[in-house]
């Protein structure tokens, strides 16, 4: 298993999501999409480390990442509704 390919993929996703956050600072709903891709990069790192070290801990952490993403989306939606209340 060539780990460099997976880490390069994760690094490219992280850099593009940082770039997306810096470009979209004024639009909050659009700014949440690069944050989701950062979570995807972290999730792929967890899975690669888990497979390479033959340990289930990374896979269990990777199953918790969608929970964090859902929580972030719910909080972002609540802020959006409060901000633009009619």
Automatic annotation (TrEMBL):
A single BP term in Gene Ontology: ATP synthesis coupled electron transport
Subcellular location: Membrane
Membrane topology field: Multi-pass membrane protein
Main localization (coarse): membrane
Gene3D superfamilies (alphabetical): 1.10.287.3510
Single GO molecular function: oxidoreductase activity, acting on NAD(P)H
Ranges annotated as spanning the membrane: 6-23, 35-52, 64-84
GO cellular component: NADH dehydrogenase complex
Cross-referenced InterPro entries: NADH_UbQ_OxRdtase_chain4L/K, NUOK/Mnh_C1-like
Keywords attached to this entry: Membrane, NAD, Translocase, Transmembrane, Transmembrane helix, Transport
Family indicated by similarity: Belongs to the complex I subunit 4L family.
Name of the protein: NADH dehydrogenase subunit 4L
Organism: Solanum bulbocastanum (Wild potato)
């Amino acid at each position: 298993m060539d780990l460099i390919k997976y880490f390069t993929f994760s690094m490219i996703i992280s850099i593009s999501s940082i770039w997306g956050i810096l470009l979209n600072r004024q639009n909050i709903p659009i700014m949440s999409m690069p944050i989701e891709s950062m979570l995807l990069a972290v999730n792929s790192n967890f899975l690669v480390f888990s497979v390479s070290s033959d340990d289930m801990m990374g896979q269990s952490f990777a199953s918790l990442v969608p929970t964090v993403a859902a929580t972030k989306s719910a909080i972002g939606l609540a802020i959006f509704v409060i901000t633009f209340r009619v």
